[in-house]
Amino acid sequence: MSFQALVTHRQEDGSIVSGVETLDEVRLPEGNVTVDVEWAGLNYKDGLCLTGGGGLVRTYPHVAGVDFAGTVRDSADDRYAKGDRVVLTGWRVGEVRWGGFAQRARVDADWLVPLPAGFTTRDAMILGTAGLTAMLAIDRLEALGVRPDHGEVLVTGAAGGVGSIAISLLHRLGYRSIALSGRPEHADALKALGAADILPRDEFLAQPDKPLESARWAAIIDNVGGKVLAKALRQVKYGGVAAAIGNAGGIGLESNVLPFILRGVTLAGIDSVMQPYAARVAAWARLDETFDRTAYGGLVEEIRLAELPLAAERILSGKIRGRTIVRLD
Ligand code: NDP
């Protein structure tokens, strides 16, 4: 009945430390489905939860991990039975509730999604919250009228999880994407995923700021916020759309109204955490059809629970490339 988990503690001096511990199943939180976790993913938010950043974790000891995939161990809910393969992302699991950095998790059935038949649990965590969010962003761009023949799509934070998966999906869907990245050393990997070109972040930010700049982008998928999103918005073409996903570069947004009132630009917020069930199922089904697992394979790094604290520091300092997944067996 015992299992291994990465348990995060707040010490008396306020410092946050995590280590692998063996826990008894009675320690699991309340919930109607218990899952044997096979793989978890590492996301920017996990970096915050493992270091005490952002005030996301309210109570300690805590088990972080905002997404996981595995097999149902037991279920008191009619929708799931022992042996079903499931994936969970969001719902503040891993933040205010115990999450996926453990061999076992107990959750509410409402938060689970059945794994599409074409996916292994490992595939599901290569995508994880990052892949789901990239898919939701592309769905939103398309719902707002963006099409491949409208022009280039700028993807910011391109070498990270959401950015690199967005590039891969855009390529499969026929879009020409430009990867904005602060790490030129990953240019070849991003081009191999389908990026048409690389725009170095410092070069982009060094161009003089104007209230409206030359119109270049049919759409933006932004993972960075701050100065990058502010500048990119001033370069969106008439009728284009910017999908705001992340804040890896800051939560600020200093802008002006001209892109909106003179070019009809839409700024669309993307949230994956509280997405309703039907939208999640639809996004996972489209990922199943669209995601090129083979092409993305080179951007996947596998780690174990004990390696997570170091990986958390790396993701917060923008040093992780693509997706890091955690093997729980
Ligand atoms: P990653 O850390 O994998 O990627 C973030 C990327 O942003 C980095 O790889 C880097 O890309 C770039 N970056 C990092 N620091 C800075 C900086 N100081 N200035 C400019 N760019 C920077 O994270 P994820 O891909 O998992 O997540 C990206 C963002 O999206 C995060 O803010 C995350 O919290 C958010 N997010 C939001 C979701 C939602 O539901 N709205 C869901 C998932 C994530 P490069 O080196 O190529 O420049």
UniProtKB/TrEMBL annotation:
Presence of keyword Thylakoid: no
Q: Residues in domain Enoyl reductase (ER)?
A: 19-326
Among SUPFAM superfamilies, the record links this protein to: GroES-like, NAD(P)-binding Rossmann-fold domains
Task: Recall the taxonomic lineage recorded for the source organism.
Answer: Bacteria, Pseudomonadati, Pseudomonadota, Alphaproteobacteria, Hyphomicrobiales
- Organism equals Devosia honganensis
Per the UniProt entry, the Enzyme Commission number(s) are 1.-.-.-
Which keywords, in A-to-Z order, does the entry hold?
Oxidoreductase
Q: Name one Pfam family in it.
A: ADH_zinc_N
Q: Does the keyword Oxidoreductase apply?
A: yes
Q: Which SMART domains match?
A: PKS_ER
Question: EC top class, in one word?
Answer: oxidoreductase
GO terms assigned for molecular function: oxidoreductase activity
- Which domain of life, per UniProt? Bacteria
The protein's name is MDR family oxidoreductase
Q: Identify the InterPro entries for this entry.
A: Acrylyl-CoA_reductase_AcuI, ADH-like_C, ADH-like_N, ER, GroES-like_sf, NAD(P)-bd_dom_sf, Zn-ADH-like_protein
